[in-house]
Design brief:
single chain; alpha/beta; 2 domains; 16 helices; 8 strands; about 10% strand; globular
Length: about 475
């Protein structure tokens, strides 16, 4: 085995990503129901949440003041939306320059790879040729018991690049991606830890642009904008391209008003001290990035967003794959609220972040769950759906936000008359594509309430693709 290749037995004991979080965030004897009750605790809390949502929606139809309450809530959320639209994105610091090389921070780049023979060589080549001092960063690839040519390819690459180090996991190693990242963390030496998916396309100057964002001590993590490498392939990949543009707009505006910045897995950078204080990656969730997002904010760290340059990844290419992927994302997003709800309502994050979180929780998770009882009661009472004002706001917000997000991703292009209509068409198509989230959220909420989710980390198959320019 090459000198820079490690087996699972070389790593020592595994980290405990749970007890550390509780000791840092709790000043009392609080223990999350999730840790005591596991998956069954989540199911009961999801069922209670669904019961409250349905019961409240039905009650609003039956009381005379129900519509006034909804309009009042719509006004408050509308004010929050206006704040988001009017906010000026935070200024991005200048990239690191060569004169400062002696002070460049050490960086560890981590990639968890399982059966990635189609893409792993390309990623390693990119990450080992970044415009950054070679003695200031390392690349750890965790071979998660791959059964294809991934291990052999990695061993070949390790003879070519001194920065590349390999950790081989055994067949019975648990925890999915989170387990792989936790296992390699004690071996990594960087004060900043970057995480990439195996299909990532990484710009050469990325580290020089990301690291200045950590100059503020309160910044615990930075998320780089994600873009779709195969965007021109079909309706689904074009939809994901517009979805990522909309997400980048939301990320920029939320952080601008002091709200919640979120991690997206691929292209995320975390300050090591913040990561360790929050207990590293949670191996009991199916979306480690969303879970870590909430724990960082609960520990009073900020998460910044880098709009340029983006990290590209492959978009899923068919409806079935998209459905499975988005159901996993939705359920993972839901899990974090169920797991940490008492920490959230105790306002540990501060009023601004808490209000921002609740506004998006309401519009993204709770409102879709309420559409079914609202529709049924509207038919029974021969009236319009009482949640129509909130639904209208939830449809208008992405319509405007996506248009702005698309323009920001191509800020170097002048907005001509033809470009305006091209962007408008992409926005309309993208919002039609986003309607699938309504079905995803309704189904996820109901499923989590009925049966506990068996922890299962589902791998997204990567085919390998070259980066493409935007197709209109």
């Amino acid at each position: 085995m090459p000198e820079n290749s490690w087996s699972e037995n070389d790593c020592g004991s595994e980290l405990d990503p749970i007890s550390s979080l509780l000791s840092e965030l709790s000043d009392d004897d609080f223990e999350s129901d999730f840790f005591l009750q596991g998956q069954e605790g989540r199911r009961r809390k999801a069922a209670l949440t669904l019961t409250i949502v349905w019961g409240s929606t039905i009650t609003l139809h039956l009381v005379s003041w129900g519509s006034w309450l909804i309009w009042g809530l719509m006004v408050l959320l509308g004010i929050q939306a206006i704040r988001l639209f009017l906010a000026r994105p935070l200024t991005t610091p200048k990239p690191l320059c060569d004169e400062e090389q002696v002070d460049f921070p050490e960086v560890s780049l981590l990639v968890a790879a399982k059966n990635e023979e189609a893409v792993i060589s390309n990623l390693v080549e990119m990450l080992c040729n970044l415009d950054y001092p070679k003695d200031k960063y390392e690349l750890w690839v965790i071979n998660d018991y791959s059964t294809d040519r991934t291990p052999a390819l990695l061993e070949q690459l390790a003879t070519k690049y001194n920065q590349l180090k390999i950790l081989h996991r055994a067949a019975d190693a648990g925890g999915g991606k989170s387990g792989a990242l936790n296992q390699v963390l004690p071996l990594a030496k960087g004060e900043i830890v970057g995480v990439f998916d195996a299909d990532a396309h990484v710009p050469k100057d990325l580290l020089r642009r990301v690291l200045p964002l950590f100059n503020r001590e309160s910044v615990g993590a930075v998320q780089v904008r994600k873009a779709i490498a195969n965007a021109s392939l079909n309706f689904w990949t074009k939809g994901q391209m517009t979805e990522m543009a909309f997400d980048s707009f939301v990320q920029q505006q939320r952080t601008a008003i002091g709200g919640i910045g979120e991690l997206r897995g691929n292209g995320q950078f975390v300050r090591r001290t913040a990561l360790e204080r929050c207990g590293s990656w949670n191996e009991q969730t199916i979306t480690d990035d969303l879970d870590l997002t909430l724990r960082l904010h609960l520990d009073n760290w900020d998460i910044r967003f880098l709009n340029y340059p983006p990290v590209e990844e492959e978009g899923v290419t068919n409806a079935l794959s998209l459905w499975h992927q988005r159901n996993r994302w939705a359920e993972g997003g839901y899990q974090r609220y169920l797991d940490y709800w008492r920490l959230i309502v105790s306002n540990r994050m501060g009023t601004g972040k808490t209000l921002d979180l609740f506004s998006f929780l309401l519009m993204q998770y709770l409102l879709p769950a309420a559409t079914i009882p609202d529709f049924l009661m509207a038919i029974a009472c021969s009236r319009l759906p009482i949640l129509a004002p909130l639904t209208g706001l939830s449809l208008t917000f992405p319509l405007i936000g996506m248009f702005i997000g698309l323009r920001r991703t191509r800020s170097n292009e002048r907005l001509t008359f033809s470009q305006f209509f091209v962007t408008l068409w992409q926005t309309l198509r993208g919002n039609f594509y986003l309607l699938h989230w309504m079905l995803v959220m309704v189904g996820t909420t109901a499923r989590m309430s009925i049966r506990p989710k068996r922890l299962k980390w589902v791998k997204t198959v990567h085919q390998g693709t070259t980066s493409e320019s935007f197709e209109f």
